[in-house]
Amino acid sequence: MKRILFFASLVLLTASVAMTNATALFNWKTTTHDFGRIPQGKPVTVEFTFSNKGEAPLLVSTAKGSCGCTGVDWPKAAVLPGQSGKIKATFNAAAVGAFSKTVTVESNAEGGSQTLSFKGEVVKEAVAAQ
Questions:
Q1: What DSSP assignment string belongs to the chain?
Q2: How far apart are CA 130 and CA 29, in angstroms?
Q3: What ranges do the domains of the chain cover?
Q4: Which residue from 71, 76, 84 is spatially nearest to 60, judged by alpha carbons?
Q5: pTM for the full model?
Q6: Which InterPro entries does the UniProt record give (predicted)?
Q7: 109 CB contacts (<8 Å, ≥6 apart)?
Q8: pLDDT given at position 14
């Protein structure tokens, strides 16, 4: 009887360890984007698409832009293994000139935080002839 209990305990312990080793894993389609030249005052949005190639649900806890000129939206629900999600970054394009921005994604995925980046140049729109 003691052997049966010992082996049953061993099986349960092994199963619980195996379950805790399951991890979530980002598989990004791309982590960079170049907008090129964009008109001043017209916000632009990039979508960074990913899939969860891990064995555990992927939970994005936060995604932050490198400045207040970038709004970020991310999945609030868990992305199950094999499923896809998107991180959307919207740049306000208020100031003329070249820009290079990042989005830092915090999650339970293997490898810690992820950094996404985008760049471009905001140009003054030509004034229409009157």
A1: -HHHHHHHHHHHHHHHHHHHT--B-EEES-SEEEEEEEETT--EEEEEEEEE-SSS-B-EEEEEESSTTEEEE---S-B-TT-EEEEEEEE---S-EEEEEEEEEEESBTTS-EEEEEEEEEEPPPPPP-
A2: 45
A3: 23-123
A4: 76
A5: 0.79
A6: DUF1573, Ig-like_fold
A7: 23, 24, 25, 26, 52, 54, 58
A8: 42
Tokens at 41, concatenated = 């005052």
Determine whether domain 23-123 maps to CATH 2.60.40.10: yes
Instruction: Average pLDDT across each block of 10 residues of the chain; the chain has 130 residues. List them in order.
Output: 50 45 94 97 97 97 96 97 97 96 97 95 68
Q: Give the β-pairing of 32-39 and 114-123.
A: parallel
Please give the pLDDT value at position 21: 77
- How far apart (Å, rounded) are the C-alpha atoms in residues 35 and 119? 6
